[in-house]
Amino acid sequence: MTYNFSSGPAMMPIEVMQGAHREFLDYAGSGMSVMELNHRSVLFNEIVEEAKTDLKDLLKIPDNYRILFLQGGASLQFAAVPMNLMRHRKAGFIMTGHWTKRAFEEAQMYGEAVKLASSEDRNYTYIPDCNNLSITDDLDYVHICENNTIYGTRFIELPDTMGKDVVSDMSSCILSEPIDVSKYGLIFAGAQKNMGPAGATIVIVREDLVRDDVMPGTPSVMKYKNQLESNSRFNTPPCYSIYMCGKVFKWIKKIGGLSAMKELNQKKAKMIYEYLDESRMFHGTVDREFRSMANATFTTGNINSDMEFVEESKKAGFVGLKGHRFVGGLRASLYNAIPVEHVEALVKYMKEYESVRMRGAI
Ligand SMILES: *Cc1c(COP(=O)(O)O)cnc(C)c1O
Hints:
3-stranded antiparallel sheet, binds pyridoxal-5'-phosphate
């Protein structure tokens, strides 16, 4: 038995994998795999349309928003967003970790990137106060990373951007709970954490932000307007990843949608954090109120003991528990596809591990 707690690419729902397995060689009686379908065929078009409809249902996306399935990962959006949206060449950033730093640095290539708040002073272990940001009139948007995959923090409310559009990197939290899409100008997320296999990147954007007057030099494939007009097929899209995302959307709907998903995710997070709070061996690494529901970061406080735990737990079937190389320590990613029972098994294993080691220490 393998318990996969990897931060991404991550575990996929078993039912989705079984469904894809059944259809692998013959999709819908076509005698072809989805991998072999032309991206402009009727069958593939249906896959895209259904995925869009299901995503729209799940997130209750208002009619004035558009869904794009793109390539290049969240990282390409760090460039695409400024190219399409930075009309005054100025955007604000809330610095909450590695991914906002990357987005900030990328945006600097295209215009002025302004740091509005930061939690760098305490190594990104909290979300900075975003109530009195110095928002100037000429800001085109404010960029946030809603769930910080590496550090294990998350925004518990959106920053007050004084009317400026919020651009949110939701790569590791999209579809983990209901959100109010109308509060955002643009949402983007790579598929490989909570939606499907790596390849597709989803952009949900308010229609008035999809414009013709993008920054000169914007590659045609990166211009949202081109992708919108061609229904995400300006060029060949990541077909198989989109197909798998579509299956995941249906799986979430079957479970009961995003409220049901949230309940399960809260349950998993509670299990691990409750244990971390009572443990004498492991402790959480970020401020409690900002703890991520998706990525629980923790440590024994000692690099060697952390590494030992990674090695030992691997023998018992637990993989992906090593923290990101930038922060060290340990991390369990609890994305939608991770069953409650897997988290139960992890906590049980950690308890036993602790009890054996602590006895040894006395
Ligand atoms: C994983 C991740 C990224 C990077 O995604 P790529 O698809 O590898 O570009 C960016 N932001 C967040 C929040 C992530 O979790």
